[in-house]
Amino acid sequence: MLNIALFGPPGAGKGTQSKLLIEKYNLTYIATGDILRQEIAENTELGKQAKDIIAAGELVPDEIIVQIIEKKIKTNPDSKGILFDGFPRTLVQAYILEGLLMKMNTTLSCMISLEVPEEKLIQRLVDRGKTSERNDDNMKVIKNRLNEYKTKTAPVGEFYNEKDKLYKINGVGTIDEIHERITQAIDNTLKQEWLNIVIAGPPGAGKGTQGRLLAEKYNLYYISTGSNLRKEVKNQTKIGKQVKPYLDKGELVPDEIVIQLIEREVKGRQDVNGFVFKGFPRTIIQAYILDGLLMKVNSSVSICMELKISTLDSIKRLSERGKSEHARSYDKTTELIVSRLEEYQKRTAPVIDYYQKMDKTMTINAQGTREEVFDRLAGSAEKAFRNIR
Prior knowledge:
By secondary structure, this protein is of the alpha/beta class. It folds into two domains: about 1-190, P-loop containing nucleotide triphosphate hydrolases (Rossmann fold), CATH 3.40.50; about 195-389, P-loop containing nucleotide triphosphate hydrolases (Rossmann fold, 3-Layer(aba) Sandwich), CATH 3.40.50.300. The protein has helices at about 15-25, 30-40, 45-55, 60-75, 90-105, 120-130, 140-160, 175-190, 205-220, 225-235, 240-250, 255-265, 285-295, 310-320, 335-355, 370-389, and strands at about 1-5, 25-30, 80-85, 110-115, 165-170, 195-200, 220-225, 275-280, 305-310, 360-365. The strands form two sheets. Strands 2-3-1-4-5 form a five-stranded parallel sheet, sandwiched between helices. Strands 7-8-6-9-10 form a five-stranded parallel sheet, sandwiched between helices. It starts with a strand and ends with a helix. About 30% of the residues are buried. The model has no long low-confidence stretch (mean pLDDT about 85).
């Protein structure tokens, strides 16, 4: 998702630019003031609560703001992301937004800050007061609002600057000139968005073969926990000695060990377009872990591609591999193969349901030649790329 916070003092032109951005990028527009007024006009339960609070001369609490934001997001599920106008206004709201987006398994892509000299802002607001019916565009109120922005809202910019997500845009010029500067910043952000693919499916579905092909075609970094663990065993490292008994039995390696390997692989990979994860996550707990690992680098899982194959074909493929030079220790007996398939159905299949609930699953027919299966996968990958960019 492309999630943008449009930031800047009163009179910076956020409303004008918002209209252009939501049309260009197909975004859900979240302006807390507008939504509050709509809730009040429609006399909803939240509107009634907000109206009473405003009538008492108090600020609407964050608990109500969050509820109306969540409600608004759910009304437009087909958008490519969210444009926040007027939120977050405080550091507390910045932390609230982080949690809200994390709940949606996404994050803020960037904050666009419109920079305008104070004297220019005052002139714009005074001029607006002459032509609009807004009673808050008089000199006394204008100065109070600008001071409020400096003391409470401006620190939010530093919050996102520390996350390398703040883009300061010159807000002086024609509407088209300013819009061009903003879209350049957003397009630069989109280029940095990773395509992270979880490639799933039962043992023998061809995840390793197809995962490597995807990584090569789209400049993704391929992470196979199984391959990495086998390297550790081969090199007789400390980790290798710990995991060997699990691999020999075809059992899942403890999460605390796998996490170390995945963090090591992800760290510092800035020269790729994203990652292909093969063999991880294998459990719901590992799905949560992967969300956390990617969140640390301001990213998330883009798509889970499930390779679909029958149980009989899985057994045939694994039995054939067990007779080849590529055999794994757990391919060599029917008992171990059946045990792995049972383990998959019990612990890994629910992971696909987890991503399905987030509308992040694509099912791919894994029957056919390597090239035929890859053509199907590539088509899904192209669609996923379009969704994030």
